[in-house]
């Protein structure tokens, strides 16, 4: 029982490189443009699959060339797409991201089909056969996350949420979450602890562990902290790397961590594996894909 279900967003990403990200009213001349597979849900599904897990994706795309591209990318990584709906009435989700000279980025996301993922797929017992873990994020409607989490918990399946982007989680969702993964900003918004180093990341993990049984707080260049409920928090410094781009680092971390958890690793060991994978991810140039 080590299958993973991921439900969440699929985006056709347009990636732009520029010296800096534009201020209000400013036009910036870019230096490169790439097209790639994206969406937190899709990225995490592929990361978990490449880490060796059997992954099923539940989501939605439009009946368009971008949707065909997104499905092919999932399938090419070995992700089962039988539960991805193709919806004719709306286009596929997309985003535009700008990476600056320091390797940081900002993005604009348009959800489109991601707001129309059918909930009924989660009601079937056959869908959950041999599944040990469900991964959620905040790029889809919370009602979908609540329903998926409730159906998973009914069947004794571990539920992990990467609570990104930051938003308040309802009590109905909180009570069904076993593993919470957040970055410094998301941790601050959820527990009012400003995360500026490993010590404050550990503090945030401890505060959040009062609500969630396992918590991971990623703190960028400082490293990562984690806490199992009723235990002392732990931390690990970031690896020394040459930064190329932070884009997708959190998704890589989440997918690899959840793959390790689904295969029986304790949280600390899973964090080590995820930290290694994320460090490798941010220090290499993303694979460029041809536009559809």
TrEMBL record:
GO MF terms held by the record: ATP binding; metal ion binding; ribokinase activity
Organism encoding this protein: Erwinia billingiae (strain Eb661)
This protein's name: Ribokinase
BP term (GO), one: D-ribose metabolic process
Ranges where the Carbohydrate kinase PfkB domain occurs: 1-286
Swiss-Prot/TrEMBL keywords: ATP-binding, Carbohydrate metabolism, Kinase, Magnesium, Metal-binding, Nucleotide-binding, Potassium, Transferase
Pfam families: PfkB
Keyword Magnesium in record: yes
InterPro entries to which the protein is assigned, alphabetical: PfkB_dom, Ribo/fructo_kinase, Ribokinase, Ribokinase-like
UniProt superkingdom: Bacteria
């Amino acid at each position: 029982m080590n299958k993973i279900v991921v439900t969440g967003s699929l985006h056709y990403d347009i990636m732009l490189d520029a010296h800096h990200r534009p201020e209000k009213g400013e036009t910036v001349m870019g230096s490169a443009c790439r097209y790639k597979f994206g969406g937190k849900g899709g990225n995490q599904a592929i990361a978990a699959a490449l880490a060796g897990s059997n992954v099923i994706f539940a989501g939605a795309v439009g009946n368009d060339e971008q949707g065909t591209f997104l499905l092919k990318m999932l399938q090419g990584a070995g992700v089962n797409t039988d539960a991805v709906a193709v919806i004719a009435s709306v286009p596929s989700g997309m985003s535009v991201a700008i990476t600056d000279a320091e390797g940081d980025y900002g993005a604009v996301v348009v959800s489109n089909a991601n707001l129309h993922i059918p909930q009924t797929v989660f009601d079937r017992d056959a869908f959950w056969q041999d599944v040990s873990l469900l991964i959620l994020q905040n790029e889809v409607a919370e009602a979908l996350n609540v329903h998926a989490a409730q159906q998973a918990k009914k069947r004794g399946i571990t539920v992990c949420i990467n609570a990104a982007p930051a938003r308040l989680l309802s009590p109905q969702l909180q009570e069904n979450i076993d593993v919470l993964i957040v970055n410094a900003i998301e941790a601050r918004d959820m527990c009012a602890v400003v995360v500026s180093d490993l010590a404050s990341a550990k503090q945030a993990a401890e505060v959040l562990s009062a609500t969630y049984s396992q918590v991971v707080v990623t703190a960028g260049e400082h490293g990562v902290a984690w806490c199992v409920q009723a235990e002392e928090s732990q931390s690990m410094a970031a690896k020394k790397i040459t930064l190329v781009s932070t884009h997708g680092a959190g998704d890589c971390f989440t997918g690899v961590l959840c793959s390790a958890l689904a295969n029986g690793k304790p949280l600390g060991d899973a964090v080590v594996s995820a930290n290694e994978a994320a460090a490798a991810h941010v220090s290499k140039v993303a694979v460029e894909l041809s536009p559809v």
